[in-house]
Amino acid sequence: MSNITNEFVENYIRDILPPSQDLFHKMEVYAVENNVPIVHKEVAALLRVLTMAVDAKRILEVGTAIAYSTLIFCDAMGENGHITTIERNEEMIIEAKKNISIANKESMIRLLPGEADEVLRFLDAQYDMIFLDGAKGQYNEFLNECINLLKPGGLLVSDNILYKGMIAHDDYAVRRKRTIVNRMRNYLDTICSHPMLETSIVPIGDGLAISYKKSRINEE
Fold first, then answer.
1. Is the pLDDT of residue 201 over 60?
2. N or C: lower Cβ tally within 10 Å for the chain?
3. Which residues of the sequence carry a binding annotation for S-adenosyl-L-methionine (predicted)?
């Protein structure tokens, strides 16, 4: 139970969605067996829809892990899309490269190793969508660079935004996670009141925030 969505509703949504095929199914099994966090099934479905809805062709991802969501974006963008993805864990990078190779998507993906706050400062492209799925306690550190890299009309999508419900209420919070909880609450306050962003918080998976970048501050 995630404390975010009723368990019966959550299971129903996951059951009604089409089952994952081939490589995606293998990655899901690997993630469970090796305790690797990947996006929930219903979040993956929403990422596909968002990518198609805005016709995203250039995506930036912070937090590659085993490249599960990376390849979700590739499928949704089609052959003309490109994703730049950042990962700091060397073991994850090795596994991600294997999966990217199996999927034959090397030409669509640029995997950059390193700490996201350092890598982001050296990027100069404009992206249609940015997906934040890295260290939860560092989202605030990434925000300004992400806004600068996101084109007007683009989407900033932040995962794990409700963090097992801990963000919403102290009754759910674990003491050793207090720092992360406080930082994530601050991040949510920032993106919900930021003059350049219009933000919606969606209580699916571990919580998802979808922020639209305005073309000007006074845009309604």
1. yes
2. C
3. 39, 69, 87, 115-116, 133
Q: Which domains does the chain have, with CATH numbers?
A: 7-213 (3.40.50.150)
Residue 89 in marked binding region: no
More confident residue, 109 or 207: 109
69 is in an annotated binding site: yes
**Is 116 marked as a binding-site residue?**
yes
| pLDDT tens by residue, 62-120 | 999 999 999 999 999 998 999 999 999 999 999 999 999 999 999 999 999 999 999 99
Residue 10 assigned to a binding site: no
Mean pLDDT of 150-179: 80
The identity of residue 164, as a single letter, is K
Name the β-bridge partners of 134. none
Residue 159, annotated as binding a ligand: yes
160 is in an annotated binding site: yes
Look at strands 208-213 and 150-159 and give their pairing: antiparallel
Contact yes or no for 49/73 (Cβ under 8 A)? no
